[in-house]
TrEMBL record:
Pfam families: TauE. It is found in: Cell membrane. Keywords: Cell membrane, Membrane, Transmembrane, Transmembrane helix, Transport. This is Probable membrane transporter protein. GO terms for cellular component: plasma membrane. InterPro entries: TM_pro_TauE-like, TSUP. Belongs to the 4-toluene sulfonate uptake permease (TSUP) (TC 2.A.102) family. It is a multi-pass membrane protein. The chain crosses the membrane at residues 43-61, 73-89, 95-113, 164-181, 187-210, 217-235.
């Protein structure tokens, strides 16, 4: 029973974050789901529920999507997706997570210190590739995109809409790749179904919250989530 309550809380909080910011489900849910499930199960539950959130919101936010960046993210991800699944199947995940955690922390501190970068087409392709690799390897597509958009001072409306639209693509493709190369199980689909009511509550709450968040608060939330992700991955491996 305690495990069910923890599961519902994880899904609710992660759904609110995803809906109100366009990111946060994988960043918040995956580390805690790994406490309750095997890696394959945690990653696929994350993919399924994130896909549902993106599907539910896409029509409401389509006018804010930057379609040029979205297209380049998608093209870049085609390179990163197979690389990520190869890493998941063959490399030591401890080493990978240590590297990712240190990279996230260093880049986040640079952003906090007002370091900014210019958005270019090449960088769009690169971030799409990194996000694809992160998705199929550790189930977290968000950090590369979040770091990139924060560094380019993207508006909260464009960030949320473009990220959710990209997730709609990347989560679907990643789920198919995971099922083909890693397999799936009844536990994954039953758990995803059980988490659906919390996703619905999170969708409603997150939409209300988004309207009340200004750009400054939104940016502070991104830094907190990035620092949390980096510290969690680092401490988990030490």
């Amino acid at each position: 029973m305690d495990a069910f309550i923890i599961f519902f809380i994880i899904i609710l909080v992660a759904s609110i974050l995803q809906t109100s910011t366009g990111f946060g489900f994988s960043i918040m849910a995956t580390p805690f789901l790994l406490l309750l499930f095997e890696p394959r199960e945690a990653i696929q539950i994350n993919l399924i529920l994130s896909l549902i959130i993106s599907l539910s919101l896409i029509m409401k936010i389509k006018q804010d999507i930057d379609y040029g960046i979205l297209r380049r993210f998608m093209i870049g991800s085609f390179v990163g997706l197979p690389i990520g699944i190869s890493i998941f199947l063959s490399l030591d995940m401890t080493v990978l997570k240590l590297f990712v955690s240190v990279l996230i922390l260093v880049l986040t501190f640079l952003l906090i210190l007002k370091y900014r970068i210019k958005q270019t087409n090449i960088r769009d392709f690169t971030i799409g590739g990194l996000s694809g690799a992160f998705t199929t390897s550790i189930g977290m597509p968000g950090p590369p995109i979040l770091l990139y958009f924060s560094g380019t001072n993207t508006s909260k409306e464009a960030l949320r809409a473009t990220t959710l639209a990209f997730y709609l693509f990347i989560y679907f493709v990643s789920l198919i790749i995971q099922i083909i190369f890693v397999g799936t199980s009844k536990v994954i689909w039953v758990s995803s179904l059980e988490g659906l009511p919390m996703v619905i509550v999170g969708l409603i709450t997150g939409q209300l919250l988004f309207k009340r968040i200004n750009q400054h608060i939104f940016r502070m939330m991104t830094y907190v989530l990035l620092l949390f992700t980096g510290l969690y991955l680092l401490l988990q491996q030490l």
